[in-house]
Design a protein that fits this description.
- By secondary structure, the chain is an alpha/beta fold.
- The protein has 2 domains: about 170 residues, 3-Layer(aba) Sandwich (Rossmann fold); about 140 residues, Rossmann fold, CATH 3.40.50.
- Helix content is about 45%, strand content about 15%.
- It has 13 helices and 11 strands.
- The strands form 2 sheets. A 6-stranded mixed β-sheet has the order 8-7-9-6-5-10, with helices on both faces. It has a 5-stranded parallel β-sheet with strand order 3-2-1-4-11, with helices on both faces.
- The protein is globular.
């Protein structure tokens, strides 16, 4: 069974409620129609009657719950709750009302905060900052979280590497230039995400342009230090570095470049040294390798909130909704 089919089956086994705040985008409704037809998750779509009608024409979304913030009976409760959360930061009741009625992502976060939804998918037509800022202000980080980061699930067709072509790439969407401690935290979180979603043991490689001391540079030193920290912090996972990408994935090259590594040649979780490398890397694999790319998925928020690439398709959104529903089963 393909990765996304397994995810859909998991989501169906214990249905959760996912909120979609981007009612101004046709792709949201195309994805919603498919999710509802396959009975993968319960959906709440936030929007006015006009927005919903304009963007859902010809699609069956009759099983979705449509919530218009301007008329919904619990809106004032959400406004009051948001004000209480942010009044210490100087927010007034009037500002709380204006924010929730004009920015559906804030509204969605308050719904999750107050137990009326299990997760959120947004970002098809908004920036990562517009998705994450409300989440961190309202839902906040999960207990024990050192860093909120992002990952992609990459599914590469006809690929002998990784877990039959399935990888987690981190961080490709959020943390710009992580220091060694942050890079180690990304490695630990990404390993846990792989195990949760793929159901297999993660094998984590921290990537570099160097393999086991083949080059000397401050950038390499950062990855070496991060690897040491990650091994100490997350002894339950197989973690190693620094490794070049081919040494991490290809058994023969791993055996040659890092013969004493328990990760080289076997990696299914790839940790990039910075956001430039991660973003470029996932897009090259997606476009040239014709891979399915699900994400950026967020890790470290108290409830699952997942971002979308603004170049995403409705099919991509379906996958992210299904993954969000599975994450919600464990949050």
């Amino acid at each position: 069974m393909a990765f996304i089919d397994e995810i859909k089956a998991k989501a169906k086994s214990n249905k959760k409620t996912v909120i979609l705040p981007e009612s101004m985008d046709r792709r949201t409704f195309e994805a919603a129609a498919e999710i509802l037809a396959e009975d993968i998750a319960n959906l709440i779509i936030i929007g006015t009657d006009e927005e919903v009608k304009a963007n859902s024409e010809g699609l069956d979304i009759s099983k979705a719950t449509i919530i218009n913030p301007h008329t919904y009976e619990k809106t004032q409760e959400y406004i009051n709750g948001f004000y209480e959360l942010r009044k210490a930061k100087g927010m007034t009741p009037e500002e709380a009302e204006k924010t929730l009625l004009s920015d559906y992502m804030y509204y969605a976060c308050m719904m999750v905060k107050m137990g009326d939804g299990d997760g959120i998918v947004s970002g098809a037509c908004h920036s990562t900052a517009n998705t994450l800022r409300p989440s961190l202000q309202i839902i906040k980080t999960a207990p024990g979280t050192k860093l909120v980061s992002a990952f992609f699930v990459m599914v590469v067709p006809d690929c002998e590497y990784g877990e039959d072509g399935v990888f987690v790439f981190g961080d490709c969407g959020l943390v710009q230039n992580p220091n060694p401690e942050e890079l180690a935290a990304i490695a630990g979180s990404s390993a846990a995400s792989f195990k949760q979603l793929v159901g297999k043991e993660p094998v984590v490689a921290l990537l570099s342009h160097s393999s086991m001391g083949s080059a000397k540079h401050d950038d390499v030193t950062k990855v070496v230090e991060a690897t040491k920290i990650a091994k100490e912090e997350y002894p339950q996972f197989a973690i190693d570095g620094e490794l070049q990408a081919d040494a991490a994935m290809v058994p023969s090259i791993g055996a040659s470049k890092a013969p004493n590594s328990n990760v080289a040649g076997k990696a299914n979780v790839l940790i990039f040294p910075d956001l430039d490398a991660g973003n470029i890397g996932y897009k090259l694999v997606q476009r040239l390798g014709k891979a399915e790319a699900y994400g950026p998925m967020c890790q470290g928020i108290a409830k699952p909130v997942n971002d979308l690439s603004r170049g995403c398709s409705a099919k991509d959104i379906v996958g992210v909704i299904a993954i969000t529903a599975v994450q919600a089963q464990n949050s």
